[in-house]
Specification:
There is one protein chain. By secondary structure, the protein is mainly α. The protein has a domain of 82 residues: Homeodomain-like (Arc Repressor Mutant, subunit A, Orthogonal Bundle), CATH 1.10.10. It is 51% helix and 7% strand. Helix 2 packs across helix 3. The radius of gyration is 29 Å and the shape is rod-shaped. It is found in: Nucleus. One of its GO terms (molecular function) is DNA-binding transcription factor activity, RNA polymerase II-specific. This is Homeobox domain-containing protein. Belongs to the HD-ZIP homeobox family. Class II subfamily.
């Protein structure tokens, strides 16, 4: 006789889905009015002190902890969105530098070969403002010939 042992997995309450009927915690569903008021408060101040949190919770008929968690999540989403914007800006800047590097490599190769070359300047830089750090950087415009 060969017997097989079956491994049973225990599911802890914390690993259950929030939507399951046996879950101890339910996902907070806000009304449109509550959401609008939270968003408006966030625009004024992205973090609340204890008194502000308590007042907002009373006004929204929520617990202060729910307001606190909403603000934490909103700050995290804001930071993630800003990171995505910064990443897109840096990718574009990197692409510009890569194109400029290729142009310089072609110019060096042409100079080493001794061929007469017509110098075509790379993209004329225009100034752009980095959305995150608000520093001025170069943004590419169409190239011109000299």
């Amino acid at each position: 006789d060969v017997s097989f042992a079956v491994k049973r997995e225990r599911v802890s309450p914390s690993s259950e889905d929030d939507d399951s009927p046996n879950s101890s915690r339910k996902k907070l569903r806000l009304s449109k009015t509550q959401s609008a008021l939270l968003e408006q408060s966030f625009k004024i101040n992205s973090s609340l002190n204890q008194k502000q949190k308590q007042e907002l919770a009373e006004e929204l008929k929520l617990r202060p902890r729910q307001v606190e968690v909403w603000f934490q999540n909103r700050r995290a989403r804001t930071k993630l969105k800003q990171t995505e914007i910064d990443c897109a800006f840096l990718k574009k800047y990197c692409d510009t530098l890569t194109a400029e590097n290729r142009w310089l490599q072609r110019q060096v190769k042409a100079l080493k070969s001794g061929q007469p070359t017509y110098v075509q300047f790379p993209a004329v830089a225009a100034l752009a403002l980095c959305p995150s750090c608000e520093r001025v950087s170069a943004a590419a415009k169409p190239s011109t010939t000299a």
